[in-house]
Amino acid sequence: MSDDTFDKGKARIDPVSGVPTTGHEWDGIEELNTPLPRWWVWTFWLTVIWGVGYTIAYPAWPTAGGGTQGLFAWNSRTQVASEVADLQTTRGPVLDKIKAAPLDMIESDPQLLAAARMVGKVAFATNCASCHGAGGQGARGYANLNDDDWIWGGKLADIRQTIEHGVRWDADKATHASAMPAFGRDGVLTPEQISIVADHVRTYAETPDSDAPTPEGEKLYAENCAACHGVEGKGNPEMGAPALYDQVWLYGSDKPSVVARIVNGGGAVMPAWKDRLDDTTIKALAVYVHSLGGGQ
């Protein structure tokens, strides 16, 4: 660039925009000295002042004792605690009625039933929906709570027992503990025998591609399965043995899925909630689950 248009190291007026330059030039490109709009500068400083004031008014600065409390002595923890206390005060009379009422009497009282379902619905969404689904519809490996097929019993008392003590939850001595043997993994049955039993089991539910029962399948089933699932495959809630004659399959009804269950045995695990939820919430939760449509 010629000396008559630019003096190195000195600011000049840009002939196109009429704005002074900063004197900085790189590869023929000059930097214009364009100041920020005053409204932007004032807004910036106002936010700085606001930020400083906020740290003074509310808890913000760490100290050796934990942190400043602020001029208003407010924090979100105390706010939540206050809201919870207010909610408990509002719900208190109804919750006391639920707590005092026998479990089987709650459903006969419309007011108590409505209150129990409200409390139970919230508890279900918080603690149960992640496995059983928001509407209790279940998923593969997680029981559907809307139908009338109950592995451990669907009466109110049964549901409460299951919620309180869980299923195969080792930390609770009263949990439902029985499990299906691993007939294949432990070498109780050969792969061929397992295939025959799987075919026979699928005939109970009359799956579309199932074969007719065979004498060998009936014999193997009677010797290894009938003691838990029943001679006719109707199941046994006391042992947690599901019914095999209906169309409800927790792990799938196709042959590979049935074979996998016979080979590996075991069963699903559910936490015991008696140490996590209070008795009133468990009662309300039992009523809510029972009222989803499949309770016995």
UniProtKB/TrEMBL annotation:
Q: Which Gene3D superfamilies match?
A: 6.10.280.130, Cytochrome c-like domain (1.10.760.10)
Subunit (UniProt): Component of the cbb3-type cytochrome c oxidase at least composed of FixN, FixO, FixQ and FixP.
Q: Name one GO molecular function term.
A: iron ion binding
Organism, as annotated: Methylocystis parvus
The name under which this protein is listed is Cbb3-type cytochrome c oxidase subunit
Which residues are involved in binding heme c 1? 128, 131-132, 270
Q: Which cofactor does it need?
A: heme c
Keyword Protein biosynthesis attributed: no
- UniProt keyword terms in alphabetical order: Cell inner membrane, Cell membrane, Electron transport, Heme, Hydrogen ion transport, Ion transport, Iron, Membrane, Metal-binding, Oxidoreductase, Repeat, Respiratory chain, Transmembrane, Transmembrane helix, Transport
Q: Where in the cell is it found?
A: Cell inner membrane
Q: Name one Pfam family in it.
A: FixP_N
Function, please?
Answer: C-type cytochrome. Part of the cbb3-type cytochrome c oxidase complex. FixP subunit is required for transferring electrons from donor cytochrome c via its heme groups to FixO subunit. From there, electrons are shuttled to the catalytic binuclear center of FixN subunit where oxygen reduction takes place. The complex also functions as a proton pump.
- Entry's Gene Ontology cellular component terms: plasma membrane
PANTHER family (UniProt xref): CBB3-TYPE CYTOCHROME C OXIDASE SUBUNIT FIXP
Task: Give the main location.
Answer: membrane
- Pathway noted in the entry: Energy metabolism; oxidative phosphorylation
State the family named in the UniProt similarity comment for this chain.
Answer: Belongs to the CcoP / FixP family.
- Top-rank lineage group of the source organism: Bacteria
Where heme c 2 is bound, by residue? 180, 225, 228-229
Q: Where does the sequence pass through the membrane?
A: 39-61
Cofactor stoichiometry and binding remark: Binds 2 heme C groups per subunit.
InterPro entries, sorted = CcoP_N, CcoP_N_sf, Cyt_c-like_dom, Cyt_c-like_dom_sf, Cyt_C_IC, Cyt_c_oxidase_cbb3_su3, Cytochrome_c_Oxidase_Subunit
